[in-house]
Amino acid sequence: MYRDKNDMNWTSEQILKILDTCAEESTFPVLDNGYVYLAATRMSVYRSNEDWAIVIEVFGFSPRSGDPDVQIYTFSSKLHNRNLSSNYATEDAYNGYLKSNPYNESRFIYPIENDDWLDEKDLEYTKTKGVCVLRGNKVLVPELPEYQKYGIELEEESPLTFEFCRFLAHKYRDLVLCTEDERRVSVSPELELLLQLDAWSHPDISRGDLPSSSNTFKQVVKAIEVGSAKSYKQTKDENTHWVNWPDAGTL
Questions:
Q1: Phi, then psi, of 29 in degrees rounded to 5
Q2: Residue 153: strand, helix, or coil
């Protein structure tokens, strides 16, 4: 999806610096997060003549939270619908949050509407004959050979929850990831979609890499600066598929 816009005041260097700062302060997506088994990602880039936003969706499963979710990372020059002050113990704590996070916001959504497909004794396993409700659609927990069809090698005899999430991400990608309204939760309404990516070169944040080292993010911020996504070229070092992040969820 491409739209052309006029140049803006923000430079690519300024935007990269914001993304790098977020990475250094642990508010940028870490795809090999030891607490989250990665299943799917998507990036959407928005722009107006004055402002910009980058949204990264990460669908996965954390045994600590118990429910598969999508974390929505929004980076923007003009954040919309910020976290409520009522979520903080004091007004000073809220103001401190805003001061420390001037260009980034995070939200969670839960695309699976039930949990009776999970093993009651251990939420890290699925039931053999379970049925999950994915945005109103009933999806059967698949037979074991179905996983192999999508390149998912089961670690144990019974399917693990994160393996089922990866199955869902392969077969029902648009249902596990965000709707447009969900994706735009923190994006100012006047910004328009400039570019959307299902795969890209993501920095290895755990090893100290920064967005400014990524071919993708260099191109994305340039597209924002000049107001055109036509110059964006897919790179050969795309790595956002979960198979590239084997340490994700292993802590």
A1: -55, 130
A2: coil
Q: Are 34 and 251 in contact (CB under 8 A)?
A: yes
What is the full per-residue pLDDT of the chain (251 aa) written as tens digits?
444 445 578 999 999 999 999 999 999 999 999 999 999 999 999 999 999 999 999 999 999 888 999 999 999 999 999 988 888 999 999 999 999 999 999 999 999 999 999 998 898 999 988 999 999 999 999 999 999 999 999 999 889 999 999 999 999 999 999 999 999 999 999 999 999 999 999 999 999 999 999 999 999 999 999 999 998 998 889 999 999 999 999 98
- The answer to whether the CB of 107 falls within 8 A of the CB of 73 is no
DSSP state of 194: E
Residue from 71, 39, 80 nearest 164 by CA:
39
3-state SS of the chain: helix, strand, coil percent to 5? Answer: 30, 20, 50
* DSSP assignments along 19-86, one per residue: HHHHHHTT-S--TT-TTSEEEEEEEEEEE-SS-EEEEEEEEEE-TTT-S-EEEEEEEESSB-SPPPGG
Do β-strands 52-61 and 37-47 pair in parallel, antiparallel, or remain unpaired? antiparallel
| Residue pair 58/73 in contact by the 8 Å Cβ criterion | yes
**DSSP string computed for 131-144:** EEEETTEEEEPPPH
* Burial degree of 84 (CB within 10 A; 0-12, 13-18, 19+): exposed
Contact indicator for 194, 174 with CB cutoff of 8 Å: no
Q: Which helix (H) or strand (E) holds 92?
A: helix 91-100
How many Cβ atoms sit within 10 Å of the Cβ of residue 183? 23
State if pTM tops 0.70.
Answer: yes
